[in-house]
Amino acid sequence: MKKIGAKPEILSIETATVPELTSLLKSSKADGVLFAAGAGGKGDPERTRKVDYEGAVKVYDAMEAGNVKRLVLIGAVDIRDRSKGYPEWYDDADSGSTLTHEKVMKLIC
Q1: Contact call for residues 3 and 43 (beta carbons, < 8 A)
Q2: Distance between CA atoms of 33 and 91, rounded to whole angstroms?
Q3: What's the pLDDT score for residue 63?
Q4: What's the distance, Cα to Cα, between the start and end of the chain in Å?
Q5: pLDDT tens per residue, the chain (109 residues)?
Q6: Exposure string (b/e) for 35-54, b if CB count within 10 Å is 16 or more?
Q7: Other C-beta atoms within 10 Å of 104: how many?
Q8: How much is the pLDDT for 41?
Q9: In this structure, are residues 32 and 38 in contact, taking their beta carbons and an 8 Å threshold?
């Protein structure tokens, strides 16, 4: 990333506040954000929500406050071993979401 002029910044998306993120974006004169955070299935569902959802929202809010217009988001959806079926904690909504993602991916790939 440094070779293309990017300045990587690593911080805890769980504890960083929107003002802290905004300050970082402004002080580094960022013109874009590469968001590659995720709980990676480590921890309980609350941690996943805190990192994957709330963390992303904080970054988006900081981008808006810092007038940063470009975003590249790296993410994954339902990366489980599909040959093993659905995990025991999946409910009907999770299963339905998986089927919807599969249909969309077949259409665009």
Answers
A1: no
A2: 34
A3: 96
A4: 27
A5: 778 888 888 888 889 999 999 999 999 999 999 888 877 667 787 888 888 889 999 999 999 999 999 999 887 777 777 788 887 878 888 888 888 878 887 887 7
A6: bebbbeeeeeeeebebbbee
A7: 11
A8: 67
A9: no
Q: Token digits for 27?
A: 């002080």
Within 13 Å and on the Cβ side, how many CA atoms surround 20?
Answer: 11
Tokens of 2: 């440094």
- Reading the block at residue 7, the tokens are 């300045």
**Torsion angle, CA of 61/9/27/4, rounded to 10 degrees?**
-110
**SS3 state at 34:** strand
- 9 token code pair: 């910044």
Write the Ramachandran bin of 106: left for phi over 0, alpha for psi from -120 to 50, otherwise beta. Answer: alpha
Element holding 70 (H helix, E strand): strand 70-73
